[in-house]
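Checked the freezer inventory, then went back to the computational side. Two predictions to log before the end of the day. The first one is the construct we discussed on Monday; recording sequence and tokens without edits.
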Amino acid sequence: ISPGLLLVAGSFAAFRLLNRGLERLVPPPPSARRNRWKWRNIWTSLAHSALPGTHNPSPRRFCLHPGLSEDLMGTHPPGAHSLVAVSVGYFLEDFVDMLCNQKLHQSWELLFHHSVVIVCFGIAVLLHQYVGFALVALLVEINSIFLHLRQILLMANLVHTTCYRLNSIINLGTYVVFRITTLAWMTRWLFLNRENVPPATYAVGTVGMAIMTPMNIILFYRLLRSDFFK
């Protein structure tokens, strides 16, 4: 068993334990007690977003390892492979959590999203290649911090507060910078390097970008309509 798979399994178990203990660490407010599992789920997601979003930011990685911008296939800084493996463990845990606690018609979009991420990141973990590409993809977790905070504030009935309004503005700004722009850059890199990427891997990457890009544009529209044009 490769160390990467062991790390994925350990990450899955750690996030599962965190999920089970979060209700004691962060008790749900009265407005969220009808949906306790979702309260725990969002806080677990926030914990994962904070991991690559604050402790291992990709912009710093690019400054310290400028070769990353030219070679996202074979070049990756120390710790990047472990970070991607931990993220695979989290997405697996979140996939199982939603599958067990939420109706399929309510969660199919996120389940579909997680399936794409697990496949793409799983290839990077198993092959020890494209880790740099996965590291760039983790830039979106910087925005996910504010996206999850928005959900927490909604569940706590704090919509009409300055905190929610400020978070909405930051959320939208980081969405454009770290989610839409990042996906556009990844799509461009994949297109420019199509001759250097094996056909099977290129097909997986292209399908992944083709799925993720419209999903993120639709979510951006929903956020804009809900928080600014309601």
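The second is the one RB wanted added to the comparison set:
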Amino acid sequence: VIISSVQRHARHSFFWQFVFHTYTTAFTLVNGNGTPKSEEYSLQQKQLLLGLGAISYSACVGALPLVFMNRYTLKNSLMQLVVRKLLPAPLLGLTSAFTVAMVRSPEFDNGIEVMDRNGKVIGVSKKAGEKAVMETALSRAVLFGTTFFLPEVLMYCVQRARFVKNPRALGPVRMFVIMSVLAGMLPVSFSMFPQCGEIKRADLEPEILSSTEETEFFYNRGI
């Protein structure tokens, strides 16, 4: 996150964004819901191919602001602020959510296990899988989008107020701010939705409801 945020060249930005999304995609693969099974194809191969495509696409999208800056010299200070400082944050948030949705797409297709209050598996639900993936993608978007956006705002205020007199000290200050925001946002993003998610009876498929009278069901959301 730190290295990606300080890049000024599109090629370098693409490389570090690729590294960043590779790490987050691997994290998503390891910490997703393990329910989906398929006999028609290798699930691991499908997830790896989807992950590689998502990583490449996200790295290209993340480098677009710098490509635009390098290709077209923008003299307007407002445009420079938007393209260089403000645009990367929502892009990183959106691409982080996109990689989660792509890598965990088998949970959309095949569903995940839902349980009753006692932990007994009632069935496999695609709607629960969709809910789990969307919640995880949203929490990931908030985590990295905020971690990119908030330090830029804070550093802008620091520079305007002239809190740091020595220009050479801005780099370490920026690194400290990014690390502080990231450390603070980690527990916030993890606590946005419970690890053991809950889904109402009315939101499940009829074939699951026919086998039980329970009104509340639970599932493993993943991280």
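For RB: The chain is about 65% helix and 10% strand. Strands lie at 112-115, 121-125, 196-200, 216-220. Let me know if you want it refolded.
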